[in-house]
Write a structure and sequence with these properties.
Elements lengths: L2 E4 L6 E2 L1 H14 L7 H8 L6 H6 L6 H14 L5 E2 L3 H8 L4 E5 L4 H10 L8 E3 L12 H10 L6 E5 L2 H9 L3 E4 L15 H11 L2
Helix pairs in contact: 1-4
Length: 207
């Protein structure tokens, strides 16, 4: 049995407006100014950035920040949500040959809601979010938890993501990974540019 793990935001779906508007909602309620969308998305994907400190000025996320974030995100996470061109066909092509899963630093419940909204949620055997682990990506806990759940060894799995957080998590778990360049980051090297290239790389690994 072979398994593919997908990151969600910036890999399967373009949720940039929902993410940036939610962060800015929290910031405004805490008395901070709004930040530009592209700047937020660039920082969200930095693997070693302390997001609580950078966006809200605290060492860890507080209960107030979490409640504000979830309050806004739950209501607006489907706003302007777009499935990247070619993803629906890719999932349809892969689902007969692989166990398909999602490893996301979003909340598991919201992730399922979003993936169902764009019509691909039912194709994933597992949708695992930050609330299901102690350490989200770039820590490998999420990757290892999915492998263990499906009793699949790391050599029979592959991670797909648009962030170095995804790649670091996969590498630490001994899982092959593919970095894509249609999401929230603009990688100068080491990333593939099209869905067609991605499908080719997946089948090349497992041929």
């Amino acid at each position: 049995m072979r398994l593919i793990m997908f990151d969600m935001d910036g890999t399967l779906i373009d949720s940039g407006f929902a993410i940036t508007n939610t962060i800015n909602y929290v910031r405004e309620n805490l008395g901070f100014e709004r930040l530009e969308k592209d700047y937020i998305l660039e920082k969200v994907n930095e693997p070693h950035l302390n997001s609580a400190d950078f966006f809200y000025g605290t060492k860890e996320f507080t209960q107030q920040q979490t409640e504000l974030f979830e309050e806004y995100y739950n209501e607006h996470c489907l706003t302007d949500l777009v499935l990247y061109d070619g993803i629906a066909k890719l999932i349809d092509d892969l689902k007969g040959d692989f166990v398909l899963t999602v490893a996301t630093n979003a909340n598991s419940q919201y992730a399922k809601k979003m993936l169902d909204h764009v019509g691909i949620g039912a194709n994933f055997s597992t949708i695992l979010g930050y609330d299901s682990v102690k350490n989200p990506k770039p820590h490998p806990e999420m990757v290892n938890k999915i492998l263990n759940k499906h009793s699949i060894t790391n050599v029979n799995a592959q991670m797909i993501g648009d962030s170095h957080k995804d790649i670091l998590a996969a590498n630490s778990a001994g899982v092959d990974s593919v970095l894509v360049n249609w999401g929230f980051s603009n990688h100068e090297e080491g990333a593939i540019e099209t869905i067609e290239e991605l499908e080719q790389k997946i089948y090349e690994k497992f041929k």
